[in-house]
Amino acid sequence: VAAVACVLGVDVGGTKVAVAPVDRSGAQLAGALIEPSESGSTEAFLAALEATLVRSLAKFKEFAPPAMGLACAGTVDVSEGVVNKSPNLPLVDVPLARLLTEGLGMPVVLENDAKAAVWAESVAGVAVGLKHVVLLTLGTGVGGGLLLDGRVYRGAGGGAGELGHMIVQTGGVLCGCGARGCLEMYASGRALVRYASTRVRDPELDPEGVLLALRVKGRLTGGAVARLAMQGHPGALEAVEQLAGWLGIGLVNVSNTLNPEMIVVGGGVGRLGELLLGPAREFLGKNAMPPGRDEVRVVSAKLGNEAGLVGAGLAAWAAMAGTGDAGLGAGA
Ligand SMILES: [Zn+2]
After folding, report:
1. How many A from CA of 165 to the centre of ligand 1?
2. How far apart are the CA of 272 and the centre of ligand 1, in A?
3. How many angstroms is it from 139 CA to the middle of ligand 1?
């Protein structure tokens, strides 16, 4: 097999690691290697991650990747290659890029997962060619990534784009970040479950007791509510409508603040598509200011689960070209 110019893109999550070869255009060249990630101590996590990456280098040997990009959730100092803090990984101020570069004998660069995802959507997804793009990821939590003037926007300390923590309700639900009333508490998968839970004993909204049965079995998840809504279940539909109202508030704030050309909505809850985006878009149209409200397109993400690893690969390409924010480590 002829060698194809590619790097390895890696998405490191709290439960699994996904690795795949990514070419310069952001195309994924083979199916991903997916292995569980270790959630115990920092040492155990690092050892397991390095072992997975060694196996991925063997699996994708024919592609002869010269570098690796790695995306994870949390605050990442991209230029230093340090993970400062992550909501789902046991990493605090860990120089992950240097450790992996030394361990693997290959340059490794880091990127935040939501920033990787907006990068990927703008190069190989739904926002190709656009320069002002906001990504909102609606999963267990709510993540955000900003592409402004054609570049991933990081802010002064790398913390820009935490859209899930814009406060939308004074004295609202307590968020994991310590504040009350964050968008994440109202537009995430967990919020969808909360909305559905209030409708379980209503005979008109849960006529066959489907929601109630799921809750009793401990299986009332965001995904389950979403599936029921898509099947037309009245209580699940109302829950989605409630979530869409809060999402609409987030969209108005984003449009008024940044005037993006496109807001891309991804994540598990984002798969609801028009059921969710329709009412949220309508709220945006009524409440945001011109010219933003008339220009912005609100669309579903295209890349799904692959967005993180594709964006990580693009970060590695940019580092090799000297155009990225991450420098290649000393081991390069
Ligand atoms: Zn918060």
Report:
1. 4
2. 23
3. 14
CB environment 285-315: b (16+ within 10 A), e (fewer): beebeeebbeebebbbbbbebbbbbbbbbbb
Tell me the C-alpha distance between 172 and 20, whole Å: 41
pLDDT in tens, the chain (332 residues): 455 599 999 999 988 999 999 999 999 999 999 999 988 899 999 999 999 999 999 999 999 999 999 999 999 999 999 999 998 899 999 999 999 999 999 999 999 999 999 999 999 999 999 999 999 999 988 999 999 999 999 999 888 999 999 999 999 999 989 999 999 999 999 999 999 999 998 999 999 999 999 999 999 999 999 999 999 999 999 999 999 999 999 999 999 999 999 999 999 899 999 999 999 999 999 999 999 999 999 999 999 889 999 999 999 999 999 998 887 754 44
**Residue 141 CA, ligand 1 centroid: distance in Å:** 9
CA of 173 to the centre of ligand 1 (A): 9
Compute the distance from residue 13 Cα to the ligand 1 centre, in Å.
20
Instruction: Give this prediction's pTM.
Output: 0.93
**Ligand 1 centre distance from Cα of residue 185 (Å):** 8
Cα-to-centroid distance, 189 and ligand 1 (Å)? 15
